[in-house]
Specification:
The complex is a heterodimer of chains A (about 600) and B (about 350). In chain A, about 80% of the residues lie in helices and about 0% in strands. Chain A has about 600 residues and is mostly helical. Chain A has 2 domains: about 65-355, Orthogonal Bundle (MetI-like fold), CATH 1.10.3720.10; about 380-588, Orthogonal Bundle (MetI-like fold). In chain A, helix 9 (about 190-200) packs antiparallel against helix 10 (about 205-230) and helix 10 (about 205-230) packs antiparallel against helix 13 (about 265-290). The relative contact order of chain A is 0.11. With about 350 residues, chain B is α+β, with helices and mostly antiparallel strands. Chain B has 2 domains: about 10-225, P-loop containing nucleotide triphosphate hydrolases (Rossmann fold, 3-Layer(aba) Sandwich), CATH 3.40.50; about 240-360, RNA polymerase II/Efflux pump adaptor protein, barrel-sandwich hybrid domain (OB fold (Dihydrolipoamide Acetyltransferase, E2P), Beta Barrel), CATH 2.40.50. Chain B has helices at about 45-55, 95-105, 110-125, 140-150, 170-185, 200-205, 220-225, 230-235, 335-340; strands at about 10-15, 20-30, 35-40, 60-65, 70, 80-85, 160, 190-195, 205-210, 215-220, 240-250, 250-255, 260-265, 275-280, 285-290, 300-310, 310-320, 320-330, 345-350, 355-360. The chains are: A mainly alpha (about 600), B alpha+beta (about 350). The interface of A and B includes residues 198, 215 and 300 of A.
Chain lengths: ~600, ~350
């Protein structure tokens, strides 16, 4: 009798029915991360969304949303936020494009140096960067000192606390993100395509406009998206570099929650911001696919779908490059290229230099942040020894370390599952895991504040770690996915065939090979937490500040050289960590 | 000076990267309408040479002339060449027609003319119906055709091809080989072709330029290169070969390892190698016979190994102190072949004209 007959139809159907069970068991490594994100990310965000239309006291209500769109003060803030974000996006992308192209053209050490010149500003705290601009743009700041030295008088108008200062600060803060978003797309463009265009008779400008630029468009769009949605949630730069007329939505939300205790209105503003962000991401993913955002995958394939434009678009495109070409043909090629290179390097200097101005200020003897500083004193570093600063530093470093450990513990099994077993669940799983990167931080922060207040976690060390882990996880997960993907599973199999049991395989083969990647992911989580202010702003109580929170509180009172000293310390620690993480990442 | 200016003249072109010589100073001329192949193992300098002609690599020294015009310091887009890239390098965001039209548009032709000539080029490679597709929607063979059409659409006088068939499977490769041969024949275009595949080189070329370690090893017609290689490398790179130590004196070839003398062998082309030389004996020029039926001059050997290759069967036969490779057309179900088992005695015979002498 055959086995099929023995087993009978019921066994066959149960075997069929067993598949989902098997799938669920297979997804076990993903479960801890999923539960964590559901509790510490999805729940708070949903809570905020709910509060915009329903509160236990009032029941259902549309008033907050209505008020947001009708009260002139809030409408102004909404429009202003969009305006500032749009200008920031345009300038950031425009500045990032030549840097990305220069990076693409360079090779070896020069390329690596340029990369670091973009990477370090990226990881420099927004607080530190803003302080630097205060030193540069202040009434007695470096730029006015320079103007006085050159022209005899300082600038007629104040350089600080206006629209221009906010834009400068935001572009400075966000342009590195635009550059780093473009690089993978640029790198994925086959280097032989411009060469092929050249052999077909296209001059460099033409080859760039007709081949390189269209292929880079998804990267440009991704950069614009990242910058725009990040800019929407900004509050540090407008608060420190802007005046009352530069107040943005996030500043209003902070005020509403912390000063006015108007939760429904704060929630409504968050909901509007979240809806806008979600809409933009949805449009982007439909057009270019999600891979462009996480810097991997087959960007080109997605692109080709977009590029399959109808012939009318093709005709327009052709007319555009003909017009461009007519202009380009009359431009002096070489001087123009040198001019562009010089301009690009100026933009790089704009990114890399400002933070360095804090270093001399931190050694000033004077108590006022003036330029040039009066040398030489270490009193501001000694001031950092005060209990408030020491406590904040200790809290920051211990929270950062715990955040690194927690996010690694959650993300590693999930990354292994994602690479090896996720299959059809890949795209939704990826969207879920990187969602905390997409949702404005301020929304997560007030959601956590609301929930933590109910379970006594506000002001606690644990609350901070949980909140920071939410923020750090997308970075850690994407890093670990790359690490696990780069690991050849057959090495494990080879070790098994050689007779090594699982613990030996883990200790002798897997861990030694993965260690640099794991450490690099840990360090990125560490710096993310160390730099984090939004969550800390709400989750820390009055007496349990982190380093950025302490700096923020101090900055709202007055900008002192103590801040410059703290910034210098933070800058050095962050740079060293990022460089270490980068060195580990590059190791084969 | 010859009557006609060569289409392409490379004069002492050389390139090094630091200490690495990518191409030793090399000279080469390609006649109008000729199909010349640069053949060699990887790292032999063939792609560097091609890139120098295309203008993608600037040589440290030497010149490149096309129809007498000095191209050395002209950018790729000003050279007016056609090039088929390895893996094609089709523009992924442009349709088949837009890819083919690219070079025509770069030449500022009228829209109607661009359209006409694009259509012609597509018909020429039999892709007229796929004009609106994107490259990724095409098979490998079709992509290859688009790459050919793109390089030929503006009728360049010289077309460069860099391993154009490398990415195709065996069947498609055969098909595209005859396609390329047909286009070369019909259009009368001059082709400089790079490959590491000897079959491709032998089938397509008027002349083959065999390269080794960044310089030219031998430049000759395919038959000459195959039957009259000048060096051991050339003899071993193409086809299968038996290379035997030999001494030639006054019409008598002495093969010490076999312990035989062969009369009537032509003297070496280059007189230098005598008295010590190598004798090349292609495996398919050796006749293998039953011991009884052999002529008196035949050598005795013992069968060691048999490898069935389909149309051919390869034998390893021990003769004297050496093992010779012998290729025989497979003789179907011939009962005589069945008797040839390893260990059996056979007679081998090679006519004097089968031997080619080269420098040791």
């Amino acid at each position: 009798m055959s086995r099929a007959v023995l087993a009978g139809p019921s066994a066959a159907s149960s075997a069929h029915g067993a598949r989902p069970v098997h799938d669920l068991r297979g997804a076990m490594p993903f479960a801890p991360l999923a539960f964590f994100l559901l509790a510490a990310f999805v729940l708070p965000v949903l809570t905020v969304l709910t509060l915009s239309v329903w509160t236990p006291q009032t029941g259902w209500q549309a008033a907050p949303l209505e008020r947001l769109f009708t009260a002139p003060v809030y409408r102004t803030v909404l429009w202003r936020t969009l305006h500032i974000a749009a200008v920031t996006t345009a300038l950031s992308v425009l500045g990032a494009l030549p840097i990305a192209l220069l990076w693409h053209r360079l090779t070896g050490r020069a390329q690596q140096a340029l990369y670091l010149l973009v990477l370090l500003p990226l990881w420099t705290s927004f607080l530190v960067k803003s302080f630097a601009w205060m030193v540069l743009l202040g009434k007695n700041g470096a730029i006015n000192a320079l103007l006085t030295a050159l022209a005899g008088t300082p600038a007629a108008e104040p350089l600080l606390f206006n629209f221009g200062a906010v834009i400068v600060g935001m572009v400075h803060g966000l342009m590195p993100f635009a550059v780093l978003t473009m690089l993978p797309v640029l790198q994925a463009i086959d280097a032989r395509l411009p060469q092929a265009a050249a052999t077909l008779g296209a001059r460099p400008a033409e080859a760039f406009v007709r081949v390189t630029l269209p292929l880079l468009m998804p990267g440009v769009a991704a950069a614009a998206l990242i910058v725009f949605v990040t800019a929407l949630g900004f509050f540090i730069v407008p608060a420190l570099l802007g005046g009352p007329r530069q107040t943005m939505v996030a500043n209003v939300i902070i005020d509403l929650v912390q000063e006015l205790l108007n939760w429904p209105l704060a929630a409504a503003a968050s909901a509007v911001m979240l809806a806008l962000v979600a809409l933009l991401f949805w449009l982007f993913v439909r057009a270019f696919g999600i891979e462009t955002l996480v810097g991997r995958g087959r960007v080109q394939q997605r692109l080709q779908v977009v590029a399959a434009a109808p012939s009318r678009v093709a005709a327009l495109r052709r007319r555009f490059w003909l017009a461009f070409d007519a202009v380009a043909r009359h431009l002096p090629g070489r001087p123009l290229r040198h001019g562009l290179d010089a301009l690009t390097l100026a933009v790089v200097a704009f990114l890399a230099l400002p933070a360095l101005f804090l270093v001399p200020v931190s050694f000033s003897t004077s108590g006022i942040v003036d330029w040039p500083p009066q040398f030489f004193s270490t009193r501001w570093y000694e001031a950092l020894a005060a209990p408030a600063w020491r406590g904040a530093a200790w809290r920051s470093f211990s929270v950062a370390a715990a955040t690194g450990v927690l996010s690694l513990a959650l993300a590693y099994p999930a990354a292994v599952w994602f690479v090896r077993h996720a299959q059809r669940a890949r795209v939704p799983a990826l969207v879920f895991m990187i969602a905390p990167m997409v949702v404005p931080r301020i929304v997560i922060a007030i959601g956590l504040f609301y929930l933590f207040a109910r379970i006594g976690l506000v002001g606690s060390w644990l609350g901070l770690v949980l909140g920071h882990a939410v923020i750090a996880l997308p970075f850690v997960v994407t890093t670990l996915i790359a690490v696990v993907q780069g690991y050849d599973e057959r090495l494990d199999q080879a070790a098994a065939v050689c007779g090594a049991a699982p613990p030996r395989r883990l200790l002798r083969i897997t861990l030694p090979l993965l260690a640099p990647g794991l450490l690099s992911a840990f360090l990125f989580a560490f710096v993310t937490s160390l730099d984090e202010l939004t969550i800390a702003l709400f989750v820390t109580g009055g007496l349990s500040a982190t380093l950025p929170k302490q700096m923020w509180d101090e900055a709202l009172l007055r900008v002192s050289p103590t801040l410059a000293a703290a910034s210098t310390v933070l800058f050095v620690v962050m740079s060293a960590t990022v460089l270490a993480a980068q060195a580990l990442r590059r190791r084969p | 000076m010859t009557a006609a200016t060569p289409r392409l003249a490379i004069e002492q072109a050389g390139k090094r990267y630091g200490d690495v010589v990518a191409l030793a100073p090399t000279s080469l001329e390609v006649a109008a309408g000729e199909f010349l192949t640069l053949l060699g193992p990887s790292g032999s300098g063939k792609t560097t040479l091609l890139s120098i002609v295309a203008g993608l690599v600037v040589p440290d020294q030497g010149r490149v002339r096309l129809d007498g015009r000095d191209l050395t310091h002209i950018a790729p887009h000003g050279r007016g060449l056609g090039m088929v890239f390895q893996h094609y390098a089709l523009f992924p965001h442009l349709t088949v027609a837009e890819n083919v039209a690219f070079g025509l548009q770069a030449r500022r032709l009228q829209v109607t003319e661009v359209h006409e000539r694009t259509q012609q080029a597509l018909e020429m490679v039999r892709l007229g119906t796929l004009a609106g597709r994107l490259p990724r929607e095409l098979s490998g063979g079709q992509q290859q055709r688009v790459a050919l059409a793109r390089a030929l659409a503006y009728q360049p006088t010289l077309v460069l091809m860099d391993e154009p068939l490398g990415a195709l499977d065996r069947h498609l490769r055969e098909e595209m080989k005859s396609e390329i041969a047909r286009l070369h024949r019909e259009l009368g275009v001059t082709v400089l072709y790079v490959t590491h595949d000897q079959e491709e080189a032998l089938t397509l070329s008027d002349r083959i330029c065999l390269m080794r370690e960044a310089q030219i090893e031998q430049l000759d017609a395919p038959e000459r290169l195959y039957f009259a290689p000048r060096t051991r490398f050339a003899a071993e790179f193409l086809g299968e070969s038996n290379l035997l130590e030999a001494r030639w004196a006054s019409g008598l070839l002495h093969l010490p390892a076999l312990g035989v003398h062969v009369p009537g062998v032509a003297p070496p082309a280059d007189p230098a190698p005598a008295p010590h030389a190598l004798a090349l004996l292609r495996p398919e020029t050796i006749a293998m016979l039953p011991v009884g039926a052999a002529p008196a001059a035949a050598w005795r050997g013992t069968l060691q190994q048999r490898a069935f290759l389909g149309a051919w069967t390869r034998w390893a036969v021990r003769v004297g102190q050496v093992t010779l490779t012998v290729l025989q057309a497979t003789r179907g179900t011939d009962p005589a072949a069945a008797a040839l088992a390893p260990g059996s005695e056979v007679a081998l015979f090679a006519p004097p004209e089968a031997f080619h002498l080269l420098a040791a």
